Amino acid sequence: MFGPWWKLGMDTAMLALESQAVIGLRLAKLAAGGAGAQAEAQRMVSEKMFAAGEAAMTMATGGSTQSIVSGYRRKVRANQRRLSRSR
Superkingdom of the source (predicted)? Predict the structure, then answer.
């Protein structure tokens, strides 16, 4: 009965923790400055706009909150891998 709610809660908590790691990596990259920092700033803004539109479309077409959280987690993990490699 509470299984889906528990999973959503845990996935949301993990999204928050994983996002903090990406924020730290991005701040380090932005603090370093240069062309890489400029590209990261532009990428960050465009990713957020695209992700918000994608989430809105998912909800508008009857998608679940769980699918949106899962999609965000997938993107955050990809950013974490990419930013960790570039250090």
Answer: Bacteria
How many of the other CB atoms lie within 10 Å of CB of 34? Answer: 10
Q: How far apart are CA 54 and CA 84, in angstroms?
A: 25
Structure tokens at 25: 């990596």
Please give the structure tokens belonging to residue 61. 């077409």
DSSP run (H or E) holding 13: helix 3-32
Distances (CA, A) of 73 to 30, 31, 35, 82: 22, 25, 27, 14
What φ, ψ does residue 73 adopt, rounded to 5°?
Answer: -65, -40
What digits encode the pLDDT tens for the residues 17-72?
A: 999 999 999 999 999 999 999 999 999 999 999 999 999 999 999 999 999 999 99
Instruction: Give the pLDDT score at 49.
Output: 96
**Cα–Cα distance measured from residue 77 to residue 42, given in angstroms and rounded to the nearest whole number:** 19
Stated pTM of the model: 0.88
